[in-house]
Amino acid sequence: MIDFGALPPEINSGRMYVGPGAAPLVAAAAAWDELAAELQSMAASYGSTVQGLTVAPWHRGPVRRRSRWRQRPHPT
């Protein structure tokens, strides 16, 4: 760890202005925004798929009676 108090202010301020700048943080923020957009899209797609499955006609009748046991909670 650097002891900033041991160095003169000119050295400390010079070190602050040398380096990659804000570019890595901006790139990381853009990557997180892309990930958030993908996750939101996937969640919407998943929601519409589940909605379609719950209102589909196959959901009623003999198929439902035969698959009812699969809907029970699993023992832990």
What is the element layout, followed by pairings?
Layout: H1 9-17, H2 23-55, H3 62-67
Strand pairing plus helix content: what structural class? mainly alpha
Number of helices: 3
Report strand %: under 5%
> What order do the helices and strands follow?
HHH
Low-confidence stretches: none
Radius of gyration: 28 Å
Helix content: 55-70%
The main sheet comes to: none
Q: Tell the overall outline.
A: rod-shaped
Number of strands: 0
- The overall pLDDT average reads 82
Task: Give the end-to-end Cα distance, rounded to a whole number of Å.
Answer: 49 Å
Family: Belongs to the mycobacterial PPE family.
Domain PPE: 3-59
InterPro entries: PPE_dom (IPR000030), PPE_sf (IPR038332)
Pfam families: PPE
